[in-house]
UniProtKB/TrEMBL annotation, chain A:
Family: Belongs to the NrfD family.
GO cellular component: plasma membrane
Protein name as catalogued: Polysulphide reductase NrfD
Species annotation: Sideroxydans lithotrophicus (strain ES-1)
Transmembrane segments: 12-32, 52-77, 89-107, 127-148, 160-183, 189-213, 234-258, 278-297, 304-325, 360-381
Principal localisation: membrane
Keywords: Cell membrane, Membrane, Transmembrane, Transmembrane helix
Location in or out of the cell: Cell membrane
Automatic annotation (TrEMBL), chain B:
NCBIfam families in the record: DsrO
GO molecular function: 4 iron, 4 sulfur cluster binding; metal ion binding
Domain 4Fe-4S ferredoxin-type: 46-77, 127-156
Record-given protein name: 4Fe-4S ferredoxin iron-sulfur binding domain protein
Phylogenetic lineage: Bacteria, Pseudomonadati, Pseudomonadota, Betaproteobacteria, Nitrosomonadales
Highest taxon of the lineage: Bacteria
Gene3D superfamilies named in the record: 3.30.70.20
Length: 393, 238
């Protein structure tokens, strides 16, 4: 009897969660409608800060969607069994986040109604156009890969499919990095280090998301994760976080090396108001150092610590993207090196940006889409990692 | 014919008529947006030579003329479109001050065209860089890529547009070199409006044109020449 009540409660909770997700997605839709009818004037974006909060959400989701596949790759490509058991869940998360991220990206366009134009008029020199191909290809490949894993008869194909996904997601994240790396005129971007930086960031962000979802699923099913498995995935997260921090440091250090970029670095790291604060406190301390402490400090590293560490890594990701995308545009473009400049168009001035509620609603709408896809799929199909008794491999 | 049939017919006629009325200006806009591409020839390279010594600080005549010609509001809020702006410069080491107009530089290797996913940003054979307002999806990547901040995004619905200068909410726009005037054999509005003749417009490819002669005889520079975009707008005295 008691069991039945618990089950009923869980069923109800499931629908409540779904309704909550739906409500957030609806709020996102409302924001889109408002932006459609009023124009981008109701956002905080302007002619100086042309990419705002929606891009922070979208790029997080897309980068994490690629990184979460790392779990699957370690299983399929490198044959590690505990990761293999988690590959279906990782693939599902990847599809869900990609869908959420792309929705935000598309709906933030000035003319989202013309998105079909992007498919029919193709400019081969545009990195953006490449990305359209990369994203749709990724969807298809991951869906296929998932099918080879879930359908017993297709199992033999799962290794080649896994390999294809492995290669594709590297190219995809390279593409995301290139969106910025090709902007040679801006001091913040135009660096060859960005694609690899995004790849390493994706590893950390994807695994952090995976940890959070895994923890929720285990709790929901009243199961506990084998401590040995937790320890391995936890250590991996630690390594990725250190790697990501290293890449971000290298990016700033190389920028500091070029004389024409020191002004920008000074702005972002020292005296740019909110940006250095966000960078040092939000990203470095709360997004990296605290998680590392939670993971590695003797006596810590338990399941809840890993959960908190993962949530902080995700928070740090948002902060870093904000500093990178918004801060990178806020610093004035150096059109006349050696001159002090001023104009009515913000030349020589630090651009001001206040994200509006609509941008947040749109961004959260994208998160909600990822959440709904994951929640429903996990409920309908079996994505629970199916571990054999643990043998170290 | 029954009453309902007649009504149906009438309805069909009216809706077809309405559809035609709705589409026609669109087609017209499309033509102007694409410019007179047939006539544009690669033998021509339209350009400008801007003499900063003739450009007075505080004078805004070119900006006003551009706004009037192209139907811009002239507002200078961060969300308002500005196709041309006056920039005041002060040499940090010498303190030398100057003033100059800045607009789309009509690059021969335009980064905005390179990055545009739908090829809405395009370069005509005569070197004029334009945005096809019917193809632009408003991704704003060109604004990220332009080294001169030459582009604006239309943040609000527009009213009272000029019939031959198509603009639209949610798309990106920039100086068109007054293509609607050039194609009629006229000068760009800004060049015409400058009392001091600081803006010299013409065909850079024609050896005998005034601009080509002057570019040969005086020292002129391209802004951010290090980017090697081969801009159509050159500056003298910078
Ligand atoms: S100045 Fe900017 S907008 Fe004009 S052609 Fe060059 S890159 Fe494009
Ligand atoms: S050429 Fe025409 S569109 Fe361009 S700045 Fe001058 S007036 Fe404006």
């Amino acid at each position: 009897m008691a069991d039945l009540t618990a089950l009923r409660f869980k069923n109800r909770l499931f629908y409540v969660l779904l309704a909550a997700g739906g409500l957030v997605a609806l709020a996102g839709l409302y924001a889109v409608h408002m932006m459609e009818s009023h124009g981008h004037i109701i956002t905080g974006m302007n002619n100086q800060i042309v990419w705002g909060m929606p891009h922070v959400f979208a790029i997080f989701l897309i980068v994490a969607a690629s990184g979460v596949l790392n779990v699957a790759s370690i299983g399929s490509v490198f044959g590690k069994s505990i990761y293999k058991a988690r590959a279906p869940l990782a693939s599902l998360l990847s599809i869900a986040m990609l869908a959420g991220g792309l929705t935000v990206l598309m709906l933030d366009l000035g003319r989202p109604d013309r998105v079909i134009v992007a498919a029919t008029n193709y400019n081969p020199t545009s990195v953006f156009a490449w990305n359209v191909l990369l994203y749709s290809g990724m969807f298809t490949l991951v869906a296929l890969y998932l099918w080879t894993m879930m359908e017993r008869r297709m199992n033999p194909w799962s290794k080649p499919a896994g390999l294809a996904v492995f290669a594709w997601r590297f190219i995809l994240t390279t593409g995301t990095g290139l969106i910025f790396a090709f902007l040679t005129a801006r001091q913040a971007y135009g660096s060859a280090i960005l694609p690899p930086m995004f790849i390493v960031l994706s590893f950390a962000w994807g695994l952090a998301v995976f940890h959070v979802v895994q923890k929720v699923i285990y709790t929901w099913n009243e199961k506990t994760l084998d401590p040995a498995i937790l320890q391995r995935t936890r250590n991996l997260l630690g390594v990725f976080v250190i790697g990501a921090l290293y890449m971000v440091a290298t990016y700033h250090l190389t920028n500091l090396y070029f004389a024409h970029r020191t002004g920008f670095e000074h702005f972002i790291l020292v005296d740019g108001g909110i940006y250095p604060n966000l960078f040092w406190w939000g990203y470095v301390v709360f997004g990296n150092l605290v998680p590392l402490l939670l993971i590695y400090f003797p006596g810590l590293g338990k399941s809840t610590c890993v959960l908190v560490a993962s949530l902080l890594v995700i928070l740090g990701a948002f902060v870093l993207l904000y500093v990178f995308i918004i801060g990178g545009q806020a610093y004035p473009l150096d059109i006349f090196p050696g001159y002090q400049v001023s104009s009515t168009f913000g030349d020589g001035q630090i651009a001001i940006y206040h994200p509006s509620i609509y941008e947040f609603l749109l961004g959260f709408g994208g998160l909600a889409i990822a959440f709904i896809i994951t929640t429903v799929s996990v409920r309908v199909l079996n994505f629970m990692p199916n571990d054999k008794p643990y043998i170290p491999d | 014919m029954s009453d309902t049939d007649a009504q149906r017919r009438q309805f069909l006629k009216t809706s077809l008529g309405a559809a035609a009325v709705a589409i026609a200006p669109g087609m017209l806009l499309f033509e102007t947006a694409r410019g007179n591409t047939e006539a544009a020839s690669s033998k021509v390279r339209w350009g400008m030579l801007i003499d900063t010594a003739q450009c007075t600080q505080g004078c805004n005549d070119c900006v006003t003329a551009c706004n009037k010609e192209n139907g811009l509001s002239g507002g200078t809020a961060p969300t308002d479109s500005q196709w041309i702006r006056k920039i005041d410069l002060k040499d940090i080491s010498s303190g030398h001050e100057l003033s100059l107009p800045m607009m789309c530089q009509h690059c021969a290797e335009p980064p905005c065209v390179d990055v545009c996913p739908t090829a809405a940003s395009f370069k005509r054979a005569d070197g004029i860089v334009l945005v096809d307002r019917h193809r632009c999806i408003g991704c704003r990547y060109c604004m990220m890529a332009c080294p001169y901040k030459a582009r604006s995004f239309v943040h609000e619905p527009l009213t009272d547009q000029k019939p031959d200068v198509p603009r639209g909410k949610g798309t990106v726009e920039s100086c068109t070199l007054c293509v609607q005037r050039i194609d009629k054999g006229q000068q760009p509005a800004c060049a015409e409006a400058c009392k001091n003749k600081a803006i010299l417009f013409g065909n850079l490819n024609d050896e005998n044109s005034e601009i080509a002669k002057k570019v040969r005889s005086v020292v002129s520079v391209q802004v951010r020449a290090d980017l090697q975009l081969n801009t159509g707008i050159r500056y003298q005295g910078l």
